[in-house]
């Protein structure tokens, strides 16, 4: 999936080095975990977080290349570890279109794999930022991610969940790591405090838009394939923005589907997806994501002119065009 960065060879080369470092660090004398890591790595991923880190690092004058590679690798490892553990919690059968680690190898191996990724993440932090305020900031970011997960768990199967509840969930679960990536890039690249603050705001807006669009796609899947699972979040009691907007617009139609969503048949789910679209859930969510993206673009346009600024504009816009 690093082909995504083909037009940006400098970023691509940095990401190749990050991927190589992660492979070197994730070596373990356990055949099952080693195979699980290999399978997970083979599913790809655009490495958005380390890419944003490098883009913001370009706005400063301080360039310690080895340190930057290690920090970018730590961000990707943290993200990967959360994905592995998320799939266990959600009992998710797939990840990036392939069987998840817990599906392929079982929950025990998946837990140990995620834990091993965390230990490698901690090692990198100790090596590259132990004398900086970002050791604490990473700990705080992990705490916010966990709080987002716990808030979502509290809201599970809650038909009265509010849009504000949802936004608190994704602000921790998704936006926090993207915000951290942008902030760390600006800081370790040597940018001034004003630009660091702007990087955090850009990361927040991009992170929220990224998750909202993911949730839109969950209701926008091709429904003609009988083998393709649909609305998996709904069946797990996770009610996202498109569903919440449709419920608020027409509660008499949507609320019955929220009473026992785990028992909904495939046909029920297809009908619910149709309702969510026709009752304004998709258009309302898309409008919300577009506003977040515009907020990010407004901040990006105030950055110093550079190639990285141009790339940031493109990446932010593409968040509303992706189909993955």
* Shape designation: globular
End-to-end distance, in Å?
Answer: 11 Å
- Count of runs of 4 or more consecutive helical residues: 15
Report the major sheet: 2 strands, antiparallel
Listing every helix as H and every strand as E from the N terminus to the C terminus, the arrangement reads HHHHEEHHHHHHHHHHH
Radius of gyration: 20 Å
Average of pLDDT: 90
The chain-level structural class is mainly alpha
**Helicity range of the residues?**
over 70%
Total number of beta strands: 2
**Hey, roughly how much beta strand do the residues contain?**
under 5%
Spatial order of strands in the largest sheet? 1-2
Q: Could you describe the 3D structure shown?
A:
- β1 and β2 form a beta hairpin.
- The model has no long low-confidence stretch (mean pLDDT 90).
- This protein has a two-stranded antiparallel sheet with strand order 1-2.
- With 324 residues, it is mainly α.
- The protein starts with 8 loop residues before the first helix and ends in a 6-residue tail after the last helix.
- It has 15 helices and two strands.
List keywords for this structure.
two-stranded antiparallel sheet; 2 strands; 324 residues; mainly alpha
């Amino acid at each position: 999936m690093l082909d995504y960065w083909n037009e940006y060879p400098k970023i691509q080369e940095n990401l190749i080095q990050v991927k190589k470092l992660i492979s070197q660090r994730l070596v373990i004398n356990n055949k099952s975990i080693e195979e699980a890591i290999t399978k997970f790595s083979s599913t790809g991923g655009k490495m958005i977080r380390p890419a944003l880190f490098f883009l913001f690092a370009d706005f400063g004058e301080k360039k310690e290349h080895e340190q930057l590679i290690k920090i970018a690798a730590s961000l990707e490892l943290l993200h990967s570890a959360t994905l592995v553990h998320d799939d266990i919690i959600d009992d998710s059968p797939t990840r990036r279109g392939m069987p998840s680690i817990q599906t392929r190898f079982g929950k025990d191996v998946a837990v140990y794999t995620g834990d091993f990724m965390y230990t490698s993440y901690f090692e990198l932090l100790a090596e590259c930022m132990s004398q900086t305020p970002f050791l604490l900031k990473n700990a705080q970011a992990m705490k916010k991610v966990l709080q987002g997960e716990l808030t979502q768990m509290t809201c599970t199967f809650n038909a009265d969940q509010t849009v504000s509840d949802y936004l608190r969930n994704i602000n921790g679960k998704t936006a926090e790591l993207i915000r951290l990536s942008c902030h760390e890039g600006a800081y370790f690249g040597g940018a001034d405090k004003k630009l660091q603050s702007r990087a955090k705001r850009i990361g927040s807006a991009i992170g929220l838009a990224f998750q909202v669009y993911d949730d839109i796609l969950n209701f926008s899947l091709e429904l003609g394939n009988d083998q393709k699972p649909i609305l998996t979040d709904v069946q797990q009691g996770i009610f996202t923005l498109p569903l919440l907007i449709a419920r608020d617009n027409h509660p008499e139609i949507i609320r019955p589907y929220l009473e026992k969503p785990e028992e909904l048949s495939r046909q029920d789910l297809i009908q619910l997806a149709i309702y969510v679209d026709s009752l304004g859930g998709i258009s309302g969510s898309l409008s919300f994501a577009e506003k977040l993206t515009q907020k990010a673009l407004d901040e990006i346009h105030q950055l110093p002119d550079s190639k990285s600024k141009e790339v940031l504009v493109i990446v932010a816009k593409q968040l509303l065009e992706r189909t993955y």
